[in-house]
Amino acid sequence: LDSHHLISTNSNPKADKGKAMAVQMEPHDHKKTSSYGRTTKAKEYRANIGGYVERGDMRNAAAIEVRDVRNAAVRGSGEGNLTKYNGALKEALNYGKGAGILKPKK
User: What is d(CA 22, CA 90) in angstroms, rounded to the nearest whole number?
Assistant: First the structure.
């Protein structure tokens, strides 16, 4: 399995990679995430997420990343399973809340 960071360290340079939110994904799904690789499209995606991070809007950055993981699961495996990584995503988001990465709603 591959580790996929929700809000990559490229999008959030201040993040400690060892303490970032992450999910384990099958490699073929991971390759279908929008932030995977060094393509122009992937760099633009990470820059977009970085904009949310710079504004302190980690919740929306994480929400975009969750949608992207779900969509990648559909594109990667061809199973059409949006919920394939729900358990891992829930764990990652709970970790983010506990670690203070994701602040409570105001």
Answer: 10
Chain centroid to Cα 14, Å, comes to 16
The H-or-E segment that residue 72 falls in is helix 58-77
Contact 38, 22 (CB under 8 A): no
Tokens representing 47 are 């820059």
Q: How confident is the model at residue 80 (pLDDT cuts 50, 70, 90)?
A: confident
94, 78, 73, 82: which is closest to 24 by C-alpha? 73
**Secondary structure of residue 21 in the 3-state scheme:** coil
pTM attached to this predicted model: 0.91
Say how far residue 10 (Cα) sits from the centre of its chain.
Answer: 12
